[in-house]
Amino acid sequence: MDTNSTEDLKLIFDFLDKDNSGALDADELHCGLSILRLNLAGLQVRSIMKAADLNQDGKVDFSEFVKLCYIGATKDKIKSDDLASKLAPYDRESDGKIDVSDLRLLLGGEGEPLDEEDINDVIKELDVGSDGKIYIRDMVTRFLS
């Protein structure tokens, strides 16, 4: 894994580590999976925790998180077309863009909704145009890079 990928994973890890403990507990991991729209049941999250927690301390530290992401990316890589097609219904004008207000609805909607602070953090990470819209291709690139 290259340095940029590791740095990106560190940013994600730090974002998910809400209590700044240096490790993710099951709730923090569940929240992270929900951000990716992977709405898993508690049993599934515990199963992932058990597999990722290599030193069996009940938490996932950064090195374990990197391994989890690498294995997940190799086993089941999300295709950009799949993500773009899931975002397409929110492209109301069929111009390849999603309005920030629609993104807020998407992120705060079904499954494990994000709170307002998390939604704002996600939006800050994306390049919002002067028209208040985000290009779907930019979202796909950002989320899959």
Overall description:
The protein is 58% helix and 7% strand. It is mainly alpha-helical. The chain has 2 domains: 4-77, Recoverin, domain 1 (Orthogonal Bundle), CATH 1.10.238.10; 80-144, Recoverin, domain 1 (Orthogonal Bundle). The strands form 2 sheets. Strands 1-2 form a two-stranded antiparallel ribbon. A two-stranded antiparallel ribbon has the order 3-4. Helix 1 (3-16) crosses helix 4 and helix 5 (80-87) packs across helix 8. The longest helix is centred in the first third of the chain and has 14 residues, at 3-16. The chain is elongated, with a radius of gyration of 16 Å. The model has no long low-confidence stretch (mean pLDDT 79). Its main location: cytoplasm.
Topology overview:
Elements: H1 3-16, E1 23-24, H2 26-35, H3 42-52, E2 60-61, H4 62-75, H5 80-87, E3 97-99, H6 100-107, H7 116-125, E4 133-135, H8 136-144
Antiparallel strand pairs: 1-2, 3-4
Helix pairs in contact: 1-4, 5-8
